């Protein structure tokens, strides 16, 4: 199998596509050290074979999209740790190459999504769950532009503009995206019916509703209970395919760097998500290969 034989947008028009799960939890389960401000990018730098192994685990679980380990790779953050621009660009390219290698070895069609994490991710202080960084849209676009250009040069199938906490950052990302011809999905992180910065979801989704290069719109890195209301709001704003890849229900404590798990596991109401328009479904933090296999065996939208 050599990657995917056609655009992801075409597959979404035909039915459900299953994403992978959380990269950080899988790397931790493989014994990797994620301490320090680089998080999964530390493993990308020091132990790339472990990133490849994580991608392979998700492909074997049935994932049809593998998301690169570039979420927290930023030129400024890496410069502060002694990496020049050439070295950081090489890491971004490496992230795509590792996912592509796992996709090519899979026994089914697999797309590679290049992760473009939010500005707050490179700060490593949990601010992607707050947004409102005090930067202008132009400043945010200037931050994201070189990352997007470097990732696209490595040839992914799609960009994953993910865990976006507020409309300002979405606007910046859409500005950069409009300068390219690349397909992308846009995914907000949400809580209580609003973006993490407190913006109404109707306004947030409306920003990207007519953007021609956005092939799917939705939410990730949120509580599963927040998914259906968000999808219903998104479906009122756009006719595009929707997407959802929540966490397992745990709550992240940025002050202590720990997860607080839910009292009990509640099965995801994926059938309702599909009825609301979800066509790209997977998991984010603390959802591993077993959870992805469960999605592949559950109800699917046709």
Question: What's a concise summary of this model?
Answer:
With 302 residues, the chain is α/β, with parallel strands linked by helices.
Helix and strand pattern:
HEHHHEHHEHHEHEEEHEHEEEHEH
Strand order across the largest sheet: 1-12-9-8-5-4-3-2
Give the fraction of residues assigned to helices.
40-55%
The biggest beta sheet is recorded as:
8 strands, parallel
Describe the global form: globular
Distance between the amino and carboxyl termini: 24 Å
Share of residues in strands: 15-25%
| Radius of gyration using CA atoms only | 17 Å
Q: Note the quaternary state here.
A: single chain
What is the count of β-strands?
Answer: 12
Q: List low-confidence stretches.
A: none
Number of helices: 13
Overall mean confidence score, pLDDT: 94
**Content-based structural category:** alpha/beta
What keyword list fits this structure?
8-stranded parallel beta sheet; 43% helix; two-stranded antiparallel sheet; alpha/beta
Task: Show the helix and strand layout.
Elements: H1 8-14, E1 17-18, H2 23-29, H3 40-46, H4 48-61, E2 65-67, H5 75-79, H6 85-105, E3 111-116, H7 119-123, H8 137-153, E4 158-164, H9 167-178, E5 184-188, E6 190-191, E7 194-195, H10 201-208, E8 214-220, H11 227-237, E9 242-245, E10 251-253, E11 258-260, H12 270-275, E12 278-281, H13 289-297
Parallel strand pairs: 1-12, 2-3, 3-4, 4-5, 5-8, 8-9, 9-12
Antiparallel strand pairs: 6-7, 10-11
